[in-house]
Amino acid sequence: MAFEVRSYPELSWSISRDKIFRECKRQYYYHYYGSHNGWLDDVPEETKQIYRLKHLTNLYMIFGESIHFIAENSINQWRLLKEFPKREELIASCKKNLNDAFKDSHLRSKWIDRPKKSLMLHEMYYDGLLPEKRTNDIRERLEPCIDNLLKSRTIRDITFTQDSSIIEVEQLNTFYILDDKLYVKLDLLYQDPIGRYVITDWKTGKEDENNQAQTLFYALYFKNQFPNVSLQQLRIRLEYLKDGECTEFEPTEEMLRWAKQQVIDSIEDMRIYIEDDNLNKPKHIDEFYPEPSKKACSSCNYRELCSHKI
């Protein structure tokens, strides 16, 4: 099937899209509309610039992605070989990912040419260096996160018995609510030795009350995929690898009704900024008013384009 170039992107929903929308409407415009088709040769330079900025990353993102990548590969290795990588291998892998991102960030011309295939750290792009406080923080987190991953309840479930069944690992999926497409990716879904389904979400930061609400969207996806499974057979687990803490809960029908309504309301709010529903053509950029704050603006990928930064 030939790739179709569309004038405007589709309107879909995801946890990350909702987060950006709520944080700043101007950032939302750049990320989902201004960057669209920025990979093509015959688009305006500003579109290419926005597309490049969309692909900026940062140290915390690289670190979190590295831990998730390590968890995914380790679980897949267990599925195939019934053995888990050594602690030293996992630490070395994570350090390499961080170092590679730092080295890539010195190759600006390579990133400009192929921003999706190369890495550019936000810290290096805007400041030309890595903040010492941030690098020290990640250095202090690295080994505890690996150690707590290895001794986590989830890994114990999977590796200490032969009766756990792994269903999904970091698999991007879609499902629908009222004809609207939702994207979701579970860190891990498995069935434990006593037959319960467990959704595990790895966290490399500190506990946040919003995390439980986020995981309810994963439960919505689960119920869509397994409509005949009772919610009493489902557990949602948050593994906080930085501190080694683990929280777990059983979602209820009331919780899922709340989560579904949150999605419906969020999509309706997004539609307010659309000029043509059929094309998903957005209103003028000026309608996407910035919501500046010191913290948000300093970490925003698009701050060089925005005159409202603090």
Describe the structure.
There is one protein chain. The protein has 310 residues and is α+β, with helices and mostly antiparallel strands. It folds into 2 domains: 25-151 and 289-299, no CATH class; 153-251, Trna Endonuclease, Chain: A, domain 1, CATH 3.40.1350. The protein is 48% helix and 16% strand. It has 12 helices and 7 strands. The chain has helices at 15-23, 25-34, 45-54, 59-81, 87-104, 108-113, 122-127, 132-150, 153-159, 209-225, 253-271, 294-299, and strands spanning 165-177, 180-191, 197-203, 234-240, 245-249, 274-276, 281-282. Strand 6 (274-276) and strand 7 form a beta hairpin. Helix 10 packs across helix 11. It is globular, with a radius of gyration of 21 Å. It starts with 14 loop residues before the first helix and ends in an 11-residue tail after the last helix. The mean pLDDT is 94.
